[in-house]
Write a structure and sequence with these properties.
3 domains, two-stranded antiparallel ribbon, 16 helices
């Protein structure tokens, strides 16, 4: 909101677009916020710059206490046990607590404690997150019971599930269980899953399922991952074109004519996810990852994918994460005029 000087010394309030300087300030704050968890590495490898980074963080309102709290939460999310996540959740920002509790339940499941996962879900999560965790528990137990070894038994179980969503989730779970000891069977299970996803998506959930199968193929047959991702990228191009046309009428995907790089909406988030997937695949086939990144028609989408590839080749986590991009919640890339 800018205050404009009017005639006779009066003042009128008018909404104006953020200036380049304002956008730069917002982006700088978000970038500095993303450096919070990297301060120990900065202290170790760039000690001469660490004080300047801390000073700049203080100038934009990022305090030591908030840094310490977020560092603890991020460390627990990445490395902690289910119990350490439970301990960290109450001190986390309110908006993050549900996510941390959900992560704690899933971590308990990974630790082999399905009963504890159920207990955490029932004690701490709202209905949607609770149902998601409980379904994950049931799928894990079902997949362990089936053992993935008898395709006839697997198909019989699939027929008894309520939806294709559940069938895809179970097949991917079974494939993951079989991947190490029986990669041939793991591929066969993913081929079954692909039969359910090999269609033009009609919603984000179906795009997510295609992406999930592509990511599952990555360590088994990377070429299949590229085959699945390519039509998704083509469809994302169509959706982005349609969204640009409708912005201001039915939808508001674009901000000031630009596509935000963080997942503030389903379309931006899906572009980010596809870029992240290409980054992970770059270590297997750099040229093909580059080729698919260039299939994105919108410059912002290509930037996301290319940066993910670069980070992956440098041994870093590839790309930006939805709702937590290091470029930040209000970051946009300006197109060349």
């Amino acid at each position: 909101m800018a205050v404009l000087e009017g005639g006779g010394g009066g003042q009128n309030s008018a909404t104006t677009e953020p200036s380049a300087a304002e956008l730069e300030q917002v982006n700088a704050r978000r970038l500095l916020g993303g450096l919070q968890i990297m301060l120990p590495q900065i202290d170790q490898y760039l000690p001469g710059r660490s004080q300047a980074v801390r000073q700049k963080m203080t100038e934009v309102g990022i305090t030591d206490s908030s840094r310490a709290a977020m560092t603890q939460v991020n460390r627990a999310m990445q490395q902690g046990t289910s119990e350490s996540l439970l301990a960290a959740a109450p001190s986390a920002p309110q908006v993050m607590q549900s996510r941390i509790y959900q992560q704690a339940a899933l971590r308990a499941l990974d630790e082999g404690n399905a009963d504890r996962a159920r207990q955490i879900a029932n004690d701490y999560l709202g209905q949607g997150a609770r149902e998601s965790v409980l379904q994950a528990v049931e799928f894990r137990l079902t997949s362990e019971k089936l053992g993935s070894s008898n395709m006839d038994e697997v198909r019989h179980t699939l027929a008894g599930l309520r939806s294709d969503d559940e069938r895809i989730d179970l097949l991917v779970q079974l494939s993951g269980n079989a991947r190490q000891n029986n990669p041939k069977l793991a591929v066969e299970l993913l081929n079954e899953a692909r039969q359910f996803t090999n269609r033009r998506a009609t919603n984000y959930r179906q795009l997510e399922q295609q992406l999930m199968v592509a990511e599952a193929f990555r360590e088994l047959e990377p070429a299949r991952s590229f085959e699945i991702l390519e039509p998704g990228i083509v469809q994302l191009n169509e959706l982005l074109t349609a969204a640009a046309t409708l912005t201001g009428f039915e939808v508001n995907v674009f901000q000031d004519g630009e596509l935000p790089l963080e997942g503030r909406n389903g379309l931006s988030n899906m572009v980010t996810r596809y870029g992240h997937a290409l980054g992970l695949l770059a270590t297997s086939d750099f040229e093909q990852s580059q080729t698919l990144a260039n299939r994105f028609q919108l410059s912002e989408s290509r930037v996301v994918a290319r940066l993910s590839i670069v980070r992956s080749m440098l041994g870093k986590e590839p790309g930006f994460r939805s709702r937590g991009s290091r470029l930040g919640q209000n970051t946009v890339i300006r197109r060349g005029q």
